[in-house]
């Protein structure tokens, strides 16, 4: 029997190993719907934070006019950018997790890497919109959940699962300059279309 959205959220926060085992046979579609719903929530909250001012994600460093004086379009810009960027990075993270898992003897398929990437992001999706503290806490717990997810879904020992997370992180960081360039172009392009460039 499939877990409800709330049971998954609570499970990944307080009983992650048990919850990863419960979603082992779940479809990629079910995991994707879960991620898209939580990403929408965090995108709306990030948009509000950009609009109100106290946000980690604001466009001032890129020359993008944000905040209340920029109007509702700064909220829309942050919401759209956060959502699209979240989908893009999920795919990249899933791919590098699968590469890392296969390289170290994991038995899972890409669907397992995708589900690990989705569900490990639960704390970040719940807290990442909170300036600095929420982002750091959410990312730290996401790393812990990644190790647990790889262990449970790829059926690996904890040490190897941690190694997979490290290998995946290294691969991710190796392409991060390309990701950062893509993010910069996407953020400024979207802001220019919306008339938010200074």
Count of beta strands: 0
Share of helix, binned:
over 70%
Question: By helix and strand content, what is the structural category?
Answer: mainly alpha
Task: Give the total of domains.
Answer: 1
Explained architecture:
- Helices cover 74% and strands 0% of the residues.
- It has one domain.
- It is mostly helical.
- The protein has 9 helices and no strands.
- The N and C termini lie far apart (52 Å).
- The chain has helices at residues 5-14, 16-22, 28-52, 72-103, 110-120, 122-127, 133-153, 158-174, 176-193.
Write the SSE topology.
Blueprint: H1 5-14, H2 16-22, H3 28-52, H4 72-103, H5 110-120, H6 122-127, H7 133-153, H8 158-174, H9 176-193
Spell out the key features of this protein.
single chain; 198 residues; mainly alpha; 9 helices; 0% strand
In short:
This protein has 198 residues and is mostly helical. It contains nine helices and no strands.
